[in-house]
From TrEMBL:
Native source species: Mycobacterium simiae (Mycobacterium habana)
Domain of life of the organism encoding this protein: Bacteria
Keywords, comma-separated and alphabetical: Coiled coil, Kinase, Pyruvate, Transferase
EC number in record: 2.7.9.1
Protein name: Pyruvate, phosphate dikinase
Length: 321
């Protein structure tokens, strides 16, 4: 059989092994999204000794690379073979949590922690989300696997060209496919979110959606694309759900998330421009790199910003450039 293992969860950032296993299959089968795969826990039940070897290898490789690893592997005649490894693509939520975990384990320092969390990651974490009562009141149209966290709403399109045309007209689009292919990437970029009928959490759709920062729900079942086509839908990448309608979302701030507060404390110690939510300092309404660079050039060391963490992350990037 073959499988893909991430040494930690690249969707939620949980410190637990995450992956998929296909008994009797090949690596291409796992990532294609065309076949049903099993959780990596199935390998533990079927071949416990191989599972233990894989976990030990993942732990050692993660320490060597100082980063979460995605490992493609195969098992032949009871023997484990590691085929390739790379730093795992991760959601914005996972990027924040994993950077802090690795810092606590002394695998990376403060500078590297803030280097691994980008302003785009923070913006994605702060995107509005569904309140439970609103989510549960809406009709559930499909249920699948959460592949990239977040909430997105739009009209469901099953054809990539039609989705691109609609997006160019300013329409919010959800791309719904049986499974995604490399040639679908432009449609995925144009979409607010992605839904697939088949495929698991390490399939092409799941991995690319995390890389692009697109909300994704995969493996919703055959016939879902036809059933959703043309409908206004909201997809929930936390719950793995597709619900009917354009649902009301609730906004977040940096102060609402403990992980972002922890990153802010780190940034206040090392950023060349310290940003505060309040205080007797000049106010910077624009947190772009250009505006931050101008503030630093003007000699400011402390400013007030509505998004202190994003401002300081940009300041660190300006200093490094």
């Amino acid at each position: 059989g073959a499988g893909v293992l991430c040494s930690r969860n690249p969707i939620t950032g949980a410190n637990e092994p995450f992956g998929e296993w296909l008994p009797g299959g090949q690596g291409d089968d796992v990532v294609s999204g065309l076949v049903n795969v099993e959780s990596i826990t199935a390998l533990r039940e079927q071949l416990p000794a191989v599972y233990d070897q894989l976990m030990e290898a993942a732990h050692r490789l993660e320490r060597l690379a100082a980063d979460v690893q995605e490992i493609e592997f195969t098992v032949e005649d009871g023997k484990l073979w590691l085929l390739q490894m790379r730093s795992a693509e991760r959601s914005a939520q996972a990027a924040v949590r994993l950077a802090l975990q690795l810092r606590r384990e002394s695998l990376i320092d403060d500078d590297e922690t803030l280097h691994r969390v980008t302003p785009a990651h923070v913006e994605a974490v702060l995107r509005p989300a569904l309140q439970p009562e609103i989510r549960l009141a809406a009709q559930l149209l499909a249920k699948g696997l959460p592949a990239c966290p977040g909430v997105a709403t739009g009209i469901a399109y099953t054809d990539v060209d039609a989705a691109l045309d609609a997006a160019e007209q300013g329409e919010h689009v959800i791309l719904v496919r049986d499974h995604t292919r490399p040639e679908d990437v432009l449609g995925m970029l144009a979409a607010q979110g992605i839904v697939t009928e088949v495929g698991g959490a390490t399939s092409h759709a799941a991995v690319v959606s995390r890389e692009l920062g697109r909300v994704a729900v995969v493996g919703c079942g055959h016939g879902v694309a036809a059933a959703l086509s043309g409908k206004q839908i909201t997809i929930d990448g936390y719950e793995g759900e597709v619900r009917e309608g354009d649902l009301t979302l609730s906004a977040w701030s940096e102060n609402d998330t403990p992980e972002l507060c922890e990153l802010t404390d780190i940034a206040l110690r090392i950023s060349p421009l310290r940003a505060h939510r309040t205080g007797d300092y000049p106010r910077l309404d624009d947190c772009s790199e250009a505006a931050v660079d101008a503030a630093m050039t003007a000699g400011h060391a402390d400013i007030v910003s509505a998004t202190p963490l994003i401002t300081m992350l940009n300041a660190l990037r300006v200093r490094a450039s």
